[in-house]
Structure formats: C-alpha cells, structure tokens
Design a protein that fits this description.
The complex is a heterodimer of chains A (150) and B (111). With 150 residues, chain A is α+β, with helices and mostly antiparallel strands. Chain A is 29% helix and 25% strand. Chain A has a five-stranded antiparallel sheet, covered by helices on one side. Chain A is globular. Chain B is α/β, with parallel strands linked by helices. The chains are: A alpha+beta (150), B alpha/beta (111).
Chain lengths: 150, 111
Amino acid sequence: MTGNADHTTAERLDLQSRISDLARIPPWIERLASTYSIPDSTQFAMNLCLEEALSNVIRHGYRGTPGSIAILFSTRNGQFVFVVEDEAPLFNPVNSPELPAMNSLEEAQIGGQGIRLLRQFSDALEYHATPRGNRLTIGFASARSVTANI
Amino acid sequence: MPISTQELEGGITRVILEGRLDIEGAAAVDMPMNVIAGTKKAVLVDMEKVSFLGSMGLRALVAPARAIKGRGGKIVIFGPNELVEKVLKMSGVDTMIPIHHELQNAIAALQ
C-alpha cells in the first residue's frame, strides 16, 4: 500500500480493521498537534473525521473481516492532510446521500450522522478508488473557526 | 468514560459524563444510560467535562432521550463546550434535547 504521490508523507499510522484500534488515533493526533502546532479546534475536527471515516471502513467496508488501514499525514499549501487507505470493498462517502439533521426523536436517523459530521468538520474531502481498495483524503485548513460552519 | 449520577431536588437526576464520548466512551455509558432512561423521568445530562463527541456518542444520548420522552419524561443537556455543542447542533440533536449553559435554567426546564 502506498500513499498519494502528490503528498510528501510526514507521518503514518497503520491500523487493523478492529474498532479497538481506533483508540490509537487520539494519542497519535496529540503527538502530531505537538509537532505541527495544530490548534485544539482542529485537533477535535481531526479526531472526529478520522473516527467517523475509519469506523465506516471497519463496520461497512471490512464488515468484521481482517484487513489493514493506513493513515498518512502530511502538510500541503496551508492544509493538514490525512490520506486514509484501505483494501475494503469500494465505498465512496463523498458521494453518499447525506441524511438531514435529526429533528425529532421519533424520526432520528442516528446511524447516518457520521458522514454528515465528516463533511461538516473537514475543509476538503476527496475520494479515489484504487486498484486495491479506497483512498479518502481529508484536509483541514491550518486556521479555522469553530463557529464558521454552524 | 466515567459516568456518575446525583439526585437533585424536584426528582431531577443529574448524569455527569466525563472525558471522550467516542466509540469506546459511548460503549461504556450505553448500559448505565439505558438504566437511567428506564427509571428516571427528569434527566439533566451534565456535559461540562466531555471533551469529545462523535456520532456513536450522539447515539448514546439520543436513544435514552427517546425512551425518557416516550415515558412522558424530560431530558436536557447542560454545559457542553463549544466544539461538543457544534456536533450537537450540526446533527440536529439540539432540536430534540434542549441545551442549557446555566444550571438554574437547565433545572427549570425539567420542572
């Protein structure tokens, strides 16, 4: 598995397709934040987007089967960029229909909120199918406002 | 994720959540939240010390809220930080579970 050729990968985290492996993401982001001076609000958005993206890959891509997921981190043009690569069946969260925000407890569609949050909290989102699986690129501006997208 | 409860005057139960309400945190609070939802009718979810909220954490809030309201009860959220509140608002949870930043207002909403 290789990273996107347009990026100079600075850091990499390799995970297995287990929900328990998601616990390795927050300390990794904390370390990146310390190295690259990432603001708290951006760290929050990174944690949120990676948890949503990877839990989708694990639950709906690999569906309980063993598999690998690589997260590549780089900086480019004022953005912090994560590339998530897996070898699961193809799934494009960028083109998936977005559920509306929940507006009643009776009609709550909780399960579909992950993709909505992924889109709302990232500043750039790109998907490419690869010969071996999926590549999702998630970008975050280096300066962001917590209230900008509300 | 630590979860504790405190009984307030007027039959109000304050549920204090602390730490990350991510997939692991949501799994940890699911059972106690369901027990609370099945037995209490006025619930104040104190999120002042919640540092992170993901979609599975939303599920851990909305499912009990549905049960409480289904029994004719009330539930409010108190004191989320700015980023946690952003998640609540973007997903529309704030339209189903009112958010308060003043404890007195949160309590008043349950009475």
